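Q: Hi! First time doing this. I have a protein sequence and I read that you can turn it into a structure. Is that right? Here it is:
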Amino acid sequence: MFSFRIWGSNLGIDLGTTNTLVYAKGKGVVLNIPSVMAVARKDGRILAVGTKAKEMVGKTPQNIIAVRPMNDGVIADFDIAQKMVRYFIDQVQPYRFLVGPKLIIGVPFQATKVEKRAVVEIATQVGARRVHLVAEPVAAVIGANLPISEALGNFIVDIGGGTSEAAITSLDGLVVGRLSRVAGDEMDQAVIRHLRNHHSLVVGEQMAERIKIEIGCVCVPAQNEKMKVRGRDLNTGFPHEIEIDSEEVSSIFSPVVDTICEMIEATLEESPPELSGDIMERGICLTGGGACLRGLDKYLSQRTGLSVFLADEPLLCVVMGVGKLLEDRHLLSAVEMTPSSKH
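A: Yes, that's right. Below is the predicted 3D structure, encoded as C-alpha cells:
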C-alpha cells in the first residue's frame, strides 16, 4: 500500500555538480548526496544513485556507466539528470500526490536561456506544478544570513565543484558578478595531472578528491602533513604507492587558486564606489565546498586587503537560501531569475 496526498511538498534544490541538496518546507535539509548515478548501458536501468554510485566511479565494468549528469553547474546529460532528480524527489516524498510540488532551484547566474529551460523542463517532467529559478550567489547570500534586502553591499564568493561565482548584491538584486569554470573539480584534475607528470603515477578522481580533502591547503600549515597515495605506475603498469605532503599539494593548487582570485579582483574592480565602501567595512563571505580549502580565507585577505570570512555552514548556504525563499513569497518574487512556470 502507498500513501496518497493531495499536495506534494514544496522543495528547494541546490542541483550541484558535485552534490545535490534538497530542502523541504517545514523540515529543513532532507537530502545531501553526490550528484552521481550508475546505469546499465544496455537498457538505462538505474543501478545506484548518490554515494554508492560515486564509489563506482572508475571501477565499473563495460556494461555499467557511472555518470555525473551535471557539469559546470548546469545539466550535461538531460536524460540521466531527469532520472536523478526524480529519484531525489521520490526519496524525500515517497507518496503519490494529486498536485505536484513547488520547486525553487539554484542555478549559476550566467546560465543561458537554454540551460535554464532544461532545468525547468526536468522539474516539470518530474511533476512540479511551479518552478522558480534563483541565482546561486543570491541564494547563498540569503542562506548565509546576509542582509540582501538592505541598501548594503554584500560580497559573496561561492566555490562549488564545477563553478566559482563572485557576486555583489544589494537591494534584492545582483549588482556585479563574475563566473569561472575553475573550481573544486579543477583542483582534483590538477592533482591528477601533477601526479602523472611528476611522479608517473596514475590516480582517479576519488583519490584526487581525498588528497584535496585530507591535506589540501593554500598556504603550507605549520605542521606539514603527509599522505600515502596509491595508483598505477605509468612506467611499469603495476600498482604503486608514493607519499606526498601539504607543501606539494599547496603548489599544485596555486594556479587554480590564483584564477579564482583574479575573478574576485575583477569583480571588485567593477563594483560601484558606494558598494566598495560597504565591502571594505563588511568583508567577503566565502561559501561552497571549495571555500573550505584550508588557508583560502587568509590568502584571499592578503591578496585583496579585505577581511574574508567563511560562512557558518558553507556547503549548505545555497540550499538554505532557496529553502528560506519557500517561506517568503515576497522575497522570492524580488530575487527570482525568470517568471515561474505554471502547469
